[in-house]
Each structure stands twice: as structure tokens, then as C-alpha cells.
Amino acid sequence: MKSPARPALDPELGTLITDMPLIPEITSEILTQLRQIPATPLETLLADRQIHRREVHVPGTDGYDIPMTVLTPHTTTTAPCVYWMHGGGMIMGDRFSQLDIPLEWLDAIGAVVVTVDYRLAPEYGGIIPVRDCYDGLRWVADHADELGIDPHRIVTAGTSAGGGLAAGTTLMARDLGGPPIAAQILSCPMLDHRNTSTSSWQYSGEPTVWTHETNTFAWNALLAALPDAQVPAYISPALADDLSGLPPTYIDAGSAEVFRDEDVEFASRIWASGGQAELHIWAGGFHGFDALFPEAGLSAAARRTRTEWLRRTVPGA
């Protein structure tokens, strides 16, 4: 199938991306190599910040101990909490991936940041990653006093796969009786395993940050070719029949990325259900542009806008 025309890239980002090693499709062999690339050391991210770090292992529903990191501003008494789910297609990354994003919110509103190391596909598939995230969320709410967190100001948040997991975790919290979620931030979220939108096909056949083919690989790794009728909406939130009763939601994406249309559709369905969503589609942004190149002009605007929404929606400590 010939790829349709694509929206033009932002000129600055288009120049920056030329230095990235782009591939048309992740394979099992490439995934092994990608998993060996070291992440930015947490110590580098925490430099010049007055933060208390605590490592915990939280018991999950199936006996697995879920690693999580709690980062608390030294001045915190009873603060909002950002519960962070990292990106990586649910096939790579760890709880320190893209952590510079929620650390900006720690700086802006004095939030406690809790980041969760959910299990990855293909080793662990189906509902396991989102169940790990939900179990971690319940632990945070149950230990709010101990952590200096206001249990009524918990924000679920993530980017890419983490954005999809944040949406699924929030749906679980709504359906299973809590914990209460004050807001959710879904940055370029991975929401729909069907991978059939116009934007998914626009990014097929040519190398870019995240392609239609790589998206297919990641979903197959997670779902192992499970029939559509058996795919839980908690792991593919676009399948949810009912999007009512969700907290205020922030959704953003680039105009030049595979997830654009499913993200727009998700925001539209929240509005149709009577909910509140703020949607930003950044012209010329490719997938994850603001995480990959945070100093670019469009990235700075996207990150600033997201932070200002959080500041308005969930007052700080």
C-alpha cells in the first residue's frame, strides 16, 4: 500500500531529526539492541534539585513486586502527586525514561513524582502492564499520608505507551472504585491496537521515530495476536464503550505522527460523553518530539502549555 502524503515537519525539528538513526520497523533483534542502550542516569536528572528519593517494591495482584521510585521535594508537606508511566511501546524503557517531563511538574507545582516500572512485552503481555500500573496507583493512594501526598490531587500521566497506560489505569480506577484521579495527562498516547487510522498509514514504509510497522510489532508483542473481541479496553483504551466519568484530561500529539488521529478521536469521545478534555495537536511535530528535543522551539511551547494546564487544573502544594 502506498503511503499517503504527510504533513510537513516543523523546520527546526526537521533539521534535528536528520541526525537520528531512524528505522522503518523494530524487529526482535533490533529490540534487543535498543534495550541495551543506557538511559540518562537518574543522578543527572536530579542534579541541582532538592529532592528526597525513595525506592520501593510494591506487591502486585499476582505476587510480582513492582519497582517504583518516589521523588519528593524537600519542602513538601501535603502535595499533589504525579503518577508517571514511561513510554517505549510497552516493549522497552524503564521508570526513569522521559522522567525529565514530570520533574518539570515537580518544579512547577511542588508535586511528588512517583514512577512505576511495569512489566514489558513480549515477556509479559495482555493486561499485565496496565495491571502493574493500577496496583502501583493503589499503593500510592493507600500510603498517601506516609508519602506526603494529598490523595485527592493524584494525577495519572505518561507519554506514548505510558500515555495509553495512564488512560487505561484511569479507566480501571473509575470502574473498580478508585483511587480518585484529579486529572490525567496523555502525551502522544498509544491508545488503539487496531492501528488503522489515516495517520497510522501516513507513517508507513519510511523511517521515522515510530512507524505503522513498529506500532504493529509492539501491539503484537503485547497481545500475541489476540482476537479483537478479546482485547481489554484497559490496555487499548480506544475500545472503551464509555468515556464518561473521567477526570479533566490533557491530550497532545504532533500533526506528523502515527498516533495523531486516535488521540483526536479519544478527546472527541470524552467531549461527547460530557467530559472535559484539552487537546493540542502541534503542527509539524513528530512522535515524541518534545521528549527527544526539549530545547526546540515547538517542544518548549508544548511542554510549557502542558505544565500551565496542570498548574491551572491541579493547584500546587
Question: What's the short story on this structure?
Answer:
With 317 residues, the protein is an alpha/beta fold. The protein has helices at residues 11-17, 28-35, 42-46, 100-109, 128-142, 144-147, 161-175, 198-202, 212-223, 260-272, 289-292, 297-313; strands spanning 51-59, 65-73, 79-85, 112-116, 149-159, 183-187, 249-254, 277-282.
Report on this structure.
- The chain has 317 residues and is of the alpha/beta class.
- The chain has a single domain (11-313), classed as Rossmann fold (3-Layer(aba) Sandwich), CATH 3.40.50.
- The protein is 36% helix and 18% strand.
- The chain has twelve helices and eight strands.
- It has an eight-stranded mixed β-sheet with strand order 1-2-4-3-5-6-7-8, sandwiched between helices.
- The mean pLDDT is 95.
Q: What are the salient characteristics of this protein?
A:
eight-stranded mixed sheet, 12 helices, 317 residues, alpha/beta, single chain, globular
Question: How far apart, in Å, are the first and last alpha carbons?
Answer: 52 Å
Q: How many distinct folded domains?
A: 1
* CATH class category name: Alpha Beta
**SS elements, strand count:** 8
Spell the H/E element sequence: HHHEEEHEHHEHEHHEHEHH
Rg, nearest Å = 18 Å
CATH superfamily: Alpha/Beta hydrolase fold, catalytic domain
- Sheet with most strands: strand arrangement: 1-2-4-3-5-6-7-8
* SS class: alpha/beta
CATH architectural arrangement: 3-Layer(aba) Sandwich
Largest sheet, in brief, is: 8 strands, mixed
